[in-house]
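[job 4471] stage=fold_predict status=RUNNING
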Amino acid sequence: MESGAFVKDRLIIAVDGPSGSGKSSVCRAAATQLGADYLDTGAMYRAATWYCLDQQVDLDNEDAVAFAVEELPLKISTDPQHQVITIGQTDVTEAIREPRISEAVSEVATNRKARQLLINAQRRIIDESGFIVAEGRDITTVVAPDAQVRVLLTASAEARLRRRGLQLESESGAAQSAEALQRQVLERDKKDSAASNFTEAADGVAVLDSSDLSFQETVDSLLSRIAAVQQSDTKQKAL
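[job 4471] inference complete, writing C-alpha cells
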C-alpha cells in the first residue's frame, strides 16, 4: 500500500513518551498517512486492568494479576482510524479510558510477570504486521529495540497536564479536577518509571519535544524522521 511518498515495506516505528505527550493521537495520524498499522500498547495495559477489576482480582497480588493477564481474552485492532478493543464478547474501547482505569493501570503495568506477558503479545503483533507504528513507554528499549525508527515524544509537564485534561473532558464530557489530573499524569508516570525509563532517550533514540509544537507540526516532524530513515535505507540498498 502506498500513501504519498511513503511506500509500504517492512518498517517498525517505535514511539515512547510520558502521559499527555500526545503519543496516541500523533502516532494514529502518522500511521494513517503512512498506510501503516498502529499499536497502542497502553491500551493493552488498560484492558488488562479493566479485566482484573472486572474479575475482582487483588491488584496487589502479583501472581493473581499475572494469572489474569495470562488468560486475558483480548483482541485489539491495529487500524489507526478505527480502534476497537474487546475482552471476550465485551467492547471495552471506551471503558478502558475511564478515570478508575487510569488511576489503577500502574498496578498492572509495574507487575513484572504481567508486563512480560503483555510485552510478548506486543512483539507478536508487531512482528506479524511488519509495517507498524507502535507507541508506549518501553517500545524503543524493550519491545522493539531494533526498530528502524525510534523516537521519544515528550513535552513539558504543563503541556501534558493541559492536553490530558482536554482529552479526558472530550471523552467523558466532564472536566477533571487538578488533583485527578495530577494522579493520572504525573503520579502515574512516577509509578510507571519503576518499570521502564520513558523520560530519557536511550542511545540511538531521537527526542521530539512537542511542548511548543501544534499537533500537525508534531505529526509532520515524526513523518520527517521516518522519511529520512526510509531515504537512508533506499540509498544503502542501492549501493
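[job 4471] summary: The chain has one domain: 2-232.
[job 4471] exit 0
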